[in-house]
Design brief:
Blueprint: H1 2-16, E1 33-38, H2 45-48, H3 81-92, E2 98-103, H4 109-112, H5 114-123, E3 127-132, H6 140-147, E4 157-160, H7 168-175, E5 182-186, H8 190-195, E6 200-202, H9 214-224, E7 227-229, E8 231-232, E9 236-237, H10 239-242, E10 247-248, H11 254-265, E11 270-273, H12 305-308, H13 311-336
Parallel strand pairs: 1-2, 1-11, 2-3, 3-4, 4-5, 5-6, 6-7, 8-11
Antiparallel strand pairs: 9-10
Helix pairs in contact: 3-5, 11-13
Length: about 325
Amino acid sequence: MRRAAFITAAASALVAAGVGSGAPTPLDPPVPQVAIFYYAWYGTPAVDGAWLHWGQGDNAPPRRIGSNYYPARGPYSSGVGSVLRAQMREIAATGIDTVIVSWWGPGSVEDARLRPVVTAAKAAGLSVALHVEPWPGRTPGAVVAALRPLTGLGIRDVYVYDSTSSPDDEWRAALAGLDGFRVFAHTSLPGRALKGGFQGLYTYDVLVYDGSSFGRMCAGARRLGLVCAPSVGPGFDAFRATGDARVRQRNDGGVYDHMWQAAVRASPDVVTITSYNEWHEGTQIEPARATGGYLTYDGAWGRKGTDAQRAYLDRTAYWVERLRGVRATTARVSRAQ
């Protein structure tokens, strides 16, 4: 009886401490999150009265669009609920946690579409973050003022593109008065992010950053208590949309794998993916189909034809699982030592 009473008391103590009750113990490392940049700026004449973004680079949709790739859905409107819901389900199926929505400030098309995106994302089990773009007149103070009315949407993370275009002291002063958000600087330099009063940093650009700096970046972020969110992507090709001759070839999925490997080795807090549907810059992993004069995903991981359309989504699911598996293995090894 005494032994039974002792075991019961011990078990109760463990449960109270969170052990054996499903609650994480102090030895459990945080589960790394995965977020993906998403663009809700596309439109069609039937829905929006004009082609929005598909005609970039003096192209004439729907036959000629501002991308070197052609979406499997065809040129769509981001204002159509069925499109949003399908895209969010597609993203959620990979194991991604968060959609980072491109946002051009109050009064923009993207602002008007933010709430429908949030609704569709939440219905799919996804969280929503903001990618604050450099709208005309954007200042650190203007960003903070614009964020405050959005607190009710459940958005916690905010990524500020081109944050280094404003002085660090201006960011620090503005962010000191902002509660309820975790704000990421667009830089690979942890010290720069810290000076600006940011809580984390990310790289976004998969043309400039090839993954070689991720280890140093995340190690430096950890030393400073910052959240590290390096960005991975499949490649870059913006020629048809912008005339930019710089290209990072996809190499049949090799670039995506290389960047993911670098991110996993860096032990990040968040892996950010550039992008789900930035078709202009050719960084998208949304399904693409073969049509005359456009690139396809054929050859990626040996896949061809219609099977290749989903190649990057499926590979994302593989890497999300591997990211979390590596972290779990590391935790087990640490406990055994």
